[in-house]
Amino acid sequence: MSAETAPLETNLTAPKRQPDSPWRMAIRRFSKNRLAVIGLVIIVFMFMLCFIGPLFSPYNVLDTNVQDKNLPPSSKYWLGTDKMGRDILLRMMLAGRISLTVGLVAMAIAVLIGSTLGALAGFYRRWVDTLIMRMADIFMALPTLPILIILGTILSDLKVDPSRRIYFLMVIIGVLGWSSISRLVRGQILTLREQEFMQATEALGLRDRRKIFRHLLPNTIPIVIVSATLFVAGAIISESALSYLGIGVVPPTPSWGNMITAANNLIDFRKRPWLWIPPGTCILVTVVAINLIGDGLRDALDPKMKK
Amino acid sequence: MKQYIIRRLLQIIPTMIGISILIFAISAMVPGDYITAVNNPTMSAEKAAQLREIYGLDKPPVERYFTWAGNMLKGNLGDSLQHKKPVTTVMGNYVWNSFFIAFFSLMFSWIIAIFAGVFSAKFQYSLLDKLITLFVFLCMSLPSFFIGLLLIKFFALDLGWFPVGGMTTSGMNGSTWEQLMDIAWHMILPVTVLTMLSTGSLTRYFRTSMLEVIRQDYIRTARAKGLKERTVIFKHALRNALLPAITLMGFELPGLFGGAIILEKIFIWPGVGQVYLESISMRDYPFMLGFTIFISILTLVGNLLSDVLYGVADPRIRLK
């Protein structure tokens, strides 16, 4: 790419330009994509709102104020209060912390398992490859939502402490999602391992572990970033769906999904939309923003895929 | 081709064994069983033990797995504990209710996606294209339960245009036609949500494939011949853009028969997804396991189908 920047005859006079690094080029391409930038702004805003916002709230989530229960939005309570007189805005921000964290950590788990197994399969091939890819096939064909529901029910039955449930949830969502990432990484490694720089590592006598983790996997990062971003969106939806069904994050820990369970009560559903519409909107806005970013990243990091 | 299909079918076998072991192991982790879930206080411990023996719940998990897997091979998924009927019968009773909404939403989403995709490709980078892109992202990001609740709130409760849930108006007696119209009336909201959910990614797919086709030489030739733009787009271009899309049909298979678990719960639609959700909370193992296996088989067969269709649609692809 950089070779074409200056025509040959002007080479002597033209100021010498450092060729841009691939990452810088990617950032430039990303920032040209208006929708993706909007998505990024929204996500930054959501994170600030959820992680810094509660510090500015005059209310305490543990305070129950029975006199102020079920109030509609007003200047005192911007988004109203629930049946225990808790401020919905504050609860929503705290719920966001949980939902965003679950999404991110689940993604990290899926990426960790997926890229390691994918790299092993692509690097060692033969029976390792067959074994790992057959396992991936199994996980691909597993109906995710039903399995999540069954596992969520198990968590409820085992009487897992509500404050520790989110950790289990992260692991469950992450573990169920490794297969597609591992396929992606394996495909990349299969082509990468035939390239010349790998012959160089061979000549240097590097150990396999170093070859895989220092030389092969870093080259798959661009593609993994894209699917990891989209995975976060999916994980947030899965978590909220489970929490809505009452088997994900359970009260008193708030999550966007379990705040929507207020809609299961017909009176709250009909007369007090401020209880469940704001958290639902948060899910929608966050997921749209993440998807926009993911799409922008795809165009920016993977020019070959450019349509 | 025949060889390819046979080999793929054989490959399904170990995958299916893996899936069945995994699913069974997960369900064996569930503490409590159907007897405790029914929670009948008048039942004595003796009676409960007796019932467990009848249902075979007292045996160790490994033994239960082999009995279950063996029966499954003979096509016997056992009896649903909750419905007291064979699992296959219960599935047969409810699967069609799910199929109807899934089928209609499939139809609508394809029609909408084709038009949206074609126009957004034809007018690439225009305002229309941008609006469609935004709409696509919105659809791809919808949490189904939230959007379902919103529609019920506004269109069913506040405006009263549609029924709140269910499939029929209870106690209604009318001609067959009236009853059909009643069902259609109840179907509108759930079908709308399902359609929205699947239209997004489909539209994207059609847009991409249309953009690819539009740039080809034969399209320029068609224009140079002086054909009307509409003929060029809808007759010459669309045909080739649609061809690869038939592979998507295979992936729709599990969705058509698998039911939409959360949506059916919200719209109180008597579909197989809702029965499934119930079976999980009631510890109705035979149904829970049987249906999970059923969806997995559909997924695998669907994948195979789409690969085969790909070869049929595009002879340049050699299946090996």
TrEMBL record, chain A:
Entry's family note: Belongs to the binding-protein-dependent transport system permease family.
Localisation per UniProt entry: Cell membrane
Listed InterPro entries: BP-dependent_transpt_permease, MetI-like, MetI-like_sf, Oligopeptide_permease_AppC, OppC_N
Name of the protein: ABC transporter permease subunit
Keyword Transmembrane helix assigned: yes
UniProt keyword annotations, A-Z: Cell membrane, Membrane, Transmembrane, Transmembrane helix, Transport
Residue span, ABC transmembrane type-1 domain: 96-294
Gene Ontology process terms (BP): transmembrane transport
From TrEMBL, chain B:
InterPro entries per the UniProt record, alphabetical: BPD_transp_1_N, MetI-like, MetI-like_sf
Keyword Cell membrane: yes
Record bears the keyword Transmembrane: yes
Domain (ABC transmembrane type-1): residue spans on this chain: 95-306
Gene3D superfamilies with a match to the protein in the record: MetI-like (1.10.3720.10)
GO biological process: one example: transmembrane transport
Family designation: Belongs to the binding-protein-dependent transport system permease family.
PANTHER family: DIPEPTIDE TRANSPORT SYSTEM PERMEASE PROTEIN DPPB-RELATED
Name of this chain's protein: ABC transporter permease subunit
Lineage, uppermost ranks: Bacteria, Bacillati, Bacillota, Bacilli, Bacillales
